[in-house]
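Standup notes
- DV: blocked on the single-chain target, sequence here:
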Amino acid sequence: MYDDGKRSILGSIFYAVLWILGLLLLIFLVYKVGFASLFGSKAADDGDKMDEKEIITEIDEEIAASIKAEEDQSAQEAEEELPEEAPEETIEEETPQDSVVADANSEQINSILGQLSTEAKVAQLFFITPEQLTGVNSATAFGDMSVTAFTDHPVGGIIYSKNNFTDPAQTAEMLSKANSCSTDVTSLPLFIGIDEEGGRILRLADVPAFNIEKTPSMAELSGEGVEDAVYHAADQIGAYLKEYGFNVDFAPVADVLIEPSNAVIGDRSFGNDPDLVSKLSSDYMRGLHNNHILSCYKHYPGHGATAADSHDSEAVSERTMDEIRAAELIPFTLGISAGTDFVMTGHISFPNIPETEGLPATLSSYMITDVLRNELGYDGIVITDALNMGAIRNSYASADASVAAFLAGCDMLLMPEDFEASYNAILEKVNSGEISEDRLNESVYRIIRSKLSLG
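- DV (later): unblocked, structure below
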């Protein structure tokens, strides 16, 4: 008999099953033995008759099968109650063409980025002269007019030249006020740039009032045979630029001089040996970096094989992509790995490289995105050469050239012929969605990251 109240539910179920099986056995025996006897039937074949031992064995097997079925069902129910394991998350690596490389201070960069209006972000893409900012003929101060103009269009950088300098005190004050204005308006320092290469390109040292010892040309320095001559020359340039408030020097010239008659590059280049140009360009960059001056390798992908001057007209290189990879790209590759802050694009056309579709490198997504970004792995700032040069100005409207350069992958637009038209064109494309907010943020992210490195 059952001991009511002391059995577990599981035990009760078990004995109920046994009771039902016993009842089924009784019915079975009546059917097999009693019912057969009632009608006087006997099995003719002893093999058809089930003896007592066989019956007991069959019952045991049925009971065991029943118990196993209950255990399997309980295990299955317990397994269903367990939460499913989350599938392992797959993280896809981002490539240079999709976004910028993650940084340790990305949270700070994104915070600043989020505080800038779309108009301010677009303005950050431009690196212009103080005359383009204010509309004056020659700017020698950063006064109220400049503050008002900058507040309306907080550009990313201002490039200064000889006509902007009268004496050391005036220059230091002008640059200091410009940088303070940028910090007040955008919470970011201003890129304050200059072309101070050495040799015939010395915008500041050429002004007598500064009494600066002039640096020889790169061709002269590369031929001196003096260890670290280029580094010391660039260190000297960097020191006086820092003293007056500059933070960007558009140097070194990393062009390999393939065409000896190339006048626009000529003695600005370190020579025709790609390895020597690579080494000396890197030395020059180290000299600037020693003084916290940002460097700019130019003129990507190489201006050394042209005969024409892109300042005046279209400059053409007949080189193939394989030839460029074997020579002109070598200094840029080393410069990228060594940490150049900017790469400046050249307005050079390559008829023997069909992927450029007849466009100058500055406007070619193949040259900027496919090769410079993806193949060479550059994630710093790509800046155009001056967009008011003949190679661009003679063939493209200012606004169209600026939009095309940005869509090709450039981050900053240097000296467009018509700044206001170019600014409005980029802003319109962003507002219409033709330029995505993500694409705009990608370039401004790089600009902010570089500015924060200035300290």
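- Follow-up: The chain has 17 helices and twelve strands.
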